[in-house]
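Running log. JK asked me to keep both predictions on one page so they can be read side by side. First protein, sequence followed by its tokens:
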Amino acid sequence: MQELAMKLSITMNSWELLNEALTHRTYTAEHPHEGLRDNQRLEFLGDAVLGMIVADYLFSRFPEKAEGDLTRMRAAVVCEAALARLALKLDLGKYLLLGKGEDLSGGRYRASTLSDAVEAIIGAVFLDQGLAKVKEMVLSLLREEIEEAAQKGHRDFKTALQELVHRLYEDVVTYDVIQESGPDHNKRYEMGVIIKGVLVATGQGRSKKEAEQQAAEKALSKLKAKYKLEI
């Protein structure tokens, strides 16, 4: 854990909190005698802390941006994919305590597991070190993601897809829930994008909107390839 703390540029008063942040629910289920708590509560807290830190930074950093732009930029930074990329850079998977089945099925590299662990770590550092220190850590780790989101903009793939479908087919795009899983505080959604009654692509995310954006992005790529378009 100290190796991970060095990567995060932190030190902990309570190493138990960091250990809890790295403990997946499948591990506690298989090792109840150890008396460990899984990281779900810390993930819940870290999600809120992360959102507040990123929102505050974007609000101050980009005074010219409208509310909609800031919302899309924040979504790009705190989404599951961005947090999973950060976790892979930190090689976070090797520090996780996983149940045997979760480990064998690729849990150390699963985006949802990694992103949850990142949020749990943020929650743990917030409790242990306070807001100022966790803010310093978060902005240090995610500054590149934030600046990239600002430079590129967070493209609204749903709007782009709808405009293209209307141009090609004079039709509307609809979205259906394919699968919903996870506890109430940590839902995972798989959404499908429907064009002319056909399921064209699916996407996953921690909200329906995030999953729909991913599905729309995939559908755009398919239409681009089919019609040889520059989108």
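And the second, directly underneath as requested:
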Amino acid sequence: MKHIPNFITLLNLLAGCLAIVAIANGALTHASWWIILAAVLDLLDGAVARMTGSVSAIGKQLDSLADVVSFGVAPGFMIYALLNNSTAIYYPDNESMYYLAYTGFLIPLFAALRLARFNIDTGQEKNFTGMPTPTVALMVLSIPITVNCTLVEIPWLNDFLNHPWGLVGLTIVLSLLMVAPLRLFSLKISSIYWKYNRARYILIIFAVVLFFSIRFASIPFILLMYIILSLLKLNEAEAE
């Protein structure tokens, strides 16, 4: 039983590797689903470890190593691919603009720094300092899904996500958010009571309503709401 959480973590790592393969083959939407699977497995391994009493130091280190790949390298490579495609459309005759694509690798660099800090910081169990890497990865993977979604179209958002400078700006902001001294609440619910989880429940309700309204285009707005709620400190009362 004690090895099950680590096995789940390795599946998370495998999903991240398969996402990279999908990106290399030009299947960005498929890669997005692999990263979503990795995020689910990332939640599951910790929950199983706590339920089975098999939380371990090696599990924590393995989790961060898997996260660097699934929520750092894979999203960074996705930004690289998106920028390659975007610069080819907007600047077909300017070869120097193709170097913009390498901006995408800021994501894995800052993700590695974020995870290294997390591993030595004992004060990030109920609250995070800096944007969690899975949250950043979800933001990145929403880009190809949003752009290719025909169910709901938001022209100005699609234009922003398709433009090279929009992608570069978004990449820089997401990278800095991972290491910013910004206190963000954890989504782990330790009590069902409203007064202990106001911010979490408000975010969940907002996310569900918005997702059913505009599908994956909702992810940037959910991320913004997450930051706003954290800044408002609606979750000050934590369950003991």
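Observation for JK regarding the second prediction: The first helix runs from residue 4 to 24.
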